[in-house]
# Entry
Amino acid sequence: MTTDTSGSTGTTAPPRVHCTAAADGSLSFALPDTRATALVLKHRRTGDRLRLELAPDAVLGAETALAEGRWDVLADCGDDGERSVESGIRDLRTLVDRLPEPASAAVAVRIPYPAKDGTLAIRSWLRAPHAEAGAIGFAPYAMTVEGRLYGTGLGPGAVVEARLRGTPGVVHREPATGGSGAFAFTLPYAPLAADGITKQAIWDLWLLPSGEGEGEGEGEGEGEGEGTAAVRIARILDDIADRRGIYVYPAGPADTGGRATAVPYYTVGNDLSVRLDPAAG
Amino acid sequence: MHISFLLHNGYGIGGTIRTTFNLAETLAEHHDVEIVSVFRHRDLPVLGTPAGVTLRHLVDMRKTSATFDGDAPEHARPARIFPRGDGRHRQYSRLTDARIGAHLKSLRADVVVGTRPGLNVQITRQARRGPARVGQEHLTLDSHSYRLRREIAHRYPLLDAVTTVTEADARAYRTRLKLPGVRIDAVPNSVPAPLIPAADSTGKWVIAAGRLTDVKRYDLLVQAFAKVVAARPDWRLRIYGSGDTSGNERGALRALINELGLYNHVFLMGSAHPIEPEWTKGSIAAVTSRLESFGMTIVEAMRSGLPVVSTDCPHGPGEIIADGVDGRLVPVGDVDAIGDALLSLIADDELRRRMGQSARENAARFDPARIAERHEALFTELLARGGPGGSRSPLRDAVHRTRSTVLDGVYGIRYRAAAVLRKGKSS
# Structure
């Protein structure tokens, strides 16, 4: 009638990992009660691996670059092979409200988070330059964004460029302003809805710090001598690996005609986009 | 001492499970402790088996298990021993009546501890004479249905002790029920010391955590925060938690945040497990409930070094927070007072630091070791009172059975009268 489940902690439970983010950007991982000898970070898409020895904690130094994307954290348990680990306590207080040096050429962000199944993963971003979105405001039929810029300066012809997702070449530009290390812009919705909206449309927001003369490139090094390439606007300087559902903004009418509504939102990768939907009915 | 807990389901997640596990694990350092879970629906307990404690079950609800009990004919028939007034009655059955009965009749423990009203009642009806009988109440007398209060009034005289989590609730049991000879003690829930360093009072965030249900009144907190932002736009608010079966205020709160233009300042974070590291990202905690049976999150925040601004609602907050020392107590439902109390702590860095420090020191009284000592002292006293061979005499039981029936009638009339008055008011 009864069964005992007392005693051992069980061999089937995955090792539990606690991690701590230090102010310098390094992450340390502690695995109490396991025989693991190292942690292995594995890039979910490329399969790239990075091994961190346990001595006794595993440390991912601030100077160690981690390619952008999602990394699964595995424990090397010797003869038992590599095992997923359970996400334990994540002490990420130093990541909250991070303000990198304004002069930083590159911004590296690593946020440990629990995947859907409770296992530990790390979301990494590597941006150089980086445009960090801050407060988002609203005016009639328009949104405003204030942010900080790292690794480049804003030229006189700086613009924000909305790119229609899935349709290369369809863009809309508005001027961007700002002093040292800052940018701001107002994006009216009406031009995004100008051709009439029959189905949902997503516009991704990019900052072109030195203006319009640089084409559609997204890579580094493009337009050398003419200024910096387009920078995807994102919000990554805190402890939130996925802002969807948390940083949520109100939808508003896109124009006086009431044919569409527009709403800014953060994507699964914490990049800033605008969604337009045809008005209901 | 051999201590046997009787728990609804030790394999799930919830406040009663957590607090029972904390207590059992601490008591197990010096005693022989078992937790008997009426139901088992998973192979492993979500919260892990408490160290040194034996955990076993009476009814196997795992469909994949060879000993699955869920399709037993007896399990389809409604329970007769487990009282109907307990909200979990529908999960109980003739099968649970019999299994719990067999367990209680053969139990060779010094103390048997029930952890919800239905199980406390079942202990009074089925436990063999011998073990001291303790009924724990994790909710409050107020929150029980009329029917359950009657069943409790009728059966609890056959317990040796009732423990509540607040003094306020203990007073209710002492004054509103006649339980002669039953010791009624308030013993608060325990919260372990955090595993990470306390907050350092510099984070410009206010933190709240709890289910997004109506009783938590987060709408008041959001409104109060509009006042905070007007004076101090550099401060922001995080609310952790999600809805449950009793409701989900998320949509309504989202609409309120938009209406007040607080989308750059107030964030609904969803659930976080464990919650412990989230407290340390802020430097003030807020609770705006209209009711808190105890106030577990208040103690958690204090143990992490945060002063707590809380409504002085029944039952717990006023017994946890020393107003002006380690937090602030404000009138229930008073948006201005909540906003002012938050601003008073935001405006004064030194006050916030000092109150956070006091919060951490004062919350140490809820440490599992200190709380377990109080339960242990109670158990020891009950055993001494009862003497060897049992704490109850047949005569005392018989007397109380008769008396409780008489008093039950009086209690019932009073409640019917109250119900009529309430009905008159609302129509």
